[in-house]
Design a protein that fits this description.
This protein is an all-alpha fold and 647 residues long. The protein is built from 30 helices and 2 strands. The chain is elongated and about 105 Å long.
């Protein structure tokens, strides 16, 4: 258009007035392509729009802003004449993110109000108030026609997608500057009715983990959910009566994507509204508390999680009975808290009770039953009962692959669990292969910055440590540590554990000062989360304390090292019991290190006692031909040759 009209003096003057701004020129060109008018007429309308904009929005100080907004105002006026649904969609878009809005998400506005089936659920979108929205989303043809008009005027473009397996249609996007115009100029102040449309649509569309390729839909929705959260907090949009359920679903989506603090804000806000309008035992209140407890456990706030789960469990058992699946799921999660607190015996008893009930009511192959079996496997792994853990994980992995599919995140995470068992059994090549599959799978589904992906990177790094590949391990631990600090904070248990793991790299490389700093940071972090008593029996904290003892020993602080080793062994015995600790690999490593310390001090009988303890334990775990057993036998022989005290 511009090229064919380069000799038109009005075209030249218009280009000058638009100051060569690409977006303004593109919008003007799109307008002139769709409207039978002259450059002179367009210039006249543009000047009038400029003057109106100057009066109505004096806050727009830059020439560029006024030039852009004037062209878009003119295009908007023409859009209204062609398709009112297109014009209203443009206004509505201010409350979504500017990227990737698609039909299936917006179509959720078509869902009928839920009052008939559930009086506590409200639909703030009413057909009488927004007939254009119901027409727009009635079918994909109406939607495509509306967005086509906006594309014709250069206000939208099709989002590019290369995923041939996508389960939902391609979306449309608008330039960030156009989006800013819809927010600040097209909409004069927040429109509560429009603001609730994306909240409602997202709340209904948020998929659970049974949905095919749910992770793709969640990822697409995340930007829109974050935009809704900004509107809720910034503009203080009031919750319509019965609308708390939408905040619960919105918070659930943010929680699954690692935005724990944002999810907590929404759950607490929903809870405030529910407690005003409902009785304490109502299901939605219990559901809100349950979601809040899930956030607490992921934040490492174990005391808060325990107290909240107990409150929910009491309500569920009173309302549904102790054998109802909902009650069993709460009991299962409460057992997870006990496991994280190092109260393994209590956690095991609760998981066994839940498993027996689920196998009886749901069957041994139900997905919920498999979840509980996996949790029981975690208990066995923590205890060092690696054969039992392997059996549990293998059974769960087979069930997940059948029910969920091989690429489902639950399946992939279980690969990592099994890889940890192999590492503990000394099967490092097999462990590495599983952890690589897990990391790649989670990067493909959840993304490289998701908490589960970062934990998978940390697990793979642990295998590299055992193989002596310290450079590769350090790079992965640093990636995981930085990512976890950014997503869940520096005081979360996962972050603290990763800091402790990175300290191991420095300790193995002889960088004792660096290792000491990170070990001390990790121990302090565990104590902040778990308390002074909880840290004494928490297995990852004991591993960190054992590493710090090694650093003390290497620095020549033998008294401090010995005291730390003994404290760690006492912690393992308290957490695992006197029998289990005899075959726990990490506890045996601490015995081995303590034996070496005694050897250096010529305390031969004490060294022999610890080495014999290691020999019995390693033979039970690995067999007599394993390198760990052979090494201990050599050291016992060396003590015998040395003679002296008690040899």
């Amino acid at each position: 258009m511009w090229l064919t009209s380069c000799l038109d003096p009005d075209a030249i003057e218009l280009a000058k007035e638009l100051d060569g701004l690409p977006l303004a020129l593109a919008t003007a060109g799109a307008y002139l392509d769709n409207v039978s008018t002259t450059f002179a007429a367009y210039r006249k309308m543009y000047r009038e729009s400029w003057l109106r904009l100057q009066k109505t929005t004096p806050g727009l100080l830059s020439y560029e802003e006024r030039a852009l907004y004037s062209t878009w105002n003119m295009s908007y006026a023409q859009v209204k004449q062609r398709n009112m649904g297109s014009a209203m969609l443009l206004r509505l878009w201010a409350y979504f993110d500017n990227e990737d809005l698609w039909f299936e998400l917006l179509k959720k506005a078509q869902w009928a109000p839920l009052e008939e089936s559930a009086p506590n659920y409200a639909n703030p979108i009413q057909r009488d108030n927004m007939p254009w929205l119901f027409t727009l989303t009635d079918n994909v043809l109406n939607f495509n026609e509306a967005v086509r008009v906006l594309c014709d005027y250069g206000l939208l473009e099709v989002s590019k997608s290369t995923d041939e397996h996508a389960t939902e249609s391609c979306g449309y996007s608008m330039h960030a500057c156009v989006h800013s115009w819809t927010i600040h100029v097209l909409n004069e102040g927040p429109d509560v009715a429009l603001a609730w449309v994306p909240i409602y649509c997202i709340a209904l569309h948020a998929p659970d983990e049974t949905t095919t390729r749910y992770w793709e839909i969640r990822h697409r929705m995340l930007r829109h959910a974050s935009r809704c959260l900004t509107i809720i907090l910034r503009d203080m949009i009031q919750i319509p009566g019965g609308g708390e359920w939408a905040l619960l679903n919105l918070g659930y989506l943010l929680h699954t994507q690692g935005q724990l603090s944002d999810a907590e804000v929404l759950f607490k806000r929903a809870l405030e509204g529910l407690e005003i309008s409902q009785n304490p035992g109502q299901f939605l209140i219990l559901q809100c508390l349950y979601n809040l407890a899930n956030v607490f456990i992921d934040q490492g706030r174990l005391k808060g999680a325990e107290a909240t789960y107990k409150r929910v469990l009491e309500g569920y058992e009173r309302s549904f009975g102790p054998e109802d699946v909902k009650s069993l799921d709460i009991l299962n999660n409460l057992a997870i808290v006990f496991r994280k607190q190092g109260r393994l015996d209590k956690a095991e008893r609760m998981h066994v009770r839940v498993l027996q009930s689920k196998e009886k009511t749901l069957g041994p192959e139900d997905i919920s039953t498999l979840h509980t079996i996996k949790n029981l496997g975690n208990i066995y792994y923590d205890r060092g009962q690696l054969s039992d853990a392997e059996a549990m994980y293998t059974r769960v992995l087979s069930g997940y692959e059948t029910i969920l599919g091989p690429e489902h995140p639950q399946t992939v995470v279980t690969l990592g669990n099994l890889g940890n068992v192999y590492k503990g059994q000394g099967r490092h090549s097999e462990s590495e292969a599983l952890h690589r599959r897990a990391l790649q799978g989670l990067e493909n589904t959840l993304g490289p910055e998701h908490r589960s992906t970062l934990n998978a990177a940390s697990n793979l790094a642990g295998v590299f440590v055992e193989q002596g590949s310290f450079v590769d391990a350090e790079a992965l631990y640093k990636r995981a540590l930085q990512g976890l600090e950014n997503t869940i904070g520096s005081e979360h248990l996962d972050t603290v554990r990763t800091a402790g793991n990175l300290a191991i790299i420095y300790e193995r490389q002889g960088l004792h000062s660096e290792a000491e700093v990170l070990y001390a940071r990790a121990l302090q972090g565990y104590e902040v989360v778990l308390g002074a008593d909880g840290v004494k029996t928490y297995l990852p904290a004991l591993a960190v304390a054992s590493g710090l003892a090694i650093v003390y020993e290497m620095q020549g602080s033998f008294g401090e090292a010995e005291a730390m080793y003994k404290q760690v062994l006492q912690g393992y015995e308290a957490a695992l019991g006197c029998e289990v600790v005899k075959t726990h690999v990490d506890a045996l490593k601490t015995c081995y290190n303590l034996a070496n310390l005694f050897t250096c001090q010529n305390r031969t009988s004490e060294a022999k006692e610890q080495f014999l303890r290691c020999q019995v334990g390693y033979e039970a775990v690995y067999g007599v031909e394993h390198e760990e057993c052979i090494d201990v036998v050599r050291r016992l022989a060396s003590l015998k040759q040395r003679g002296g005290d008690g040899a």
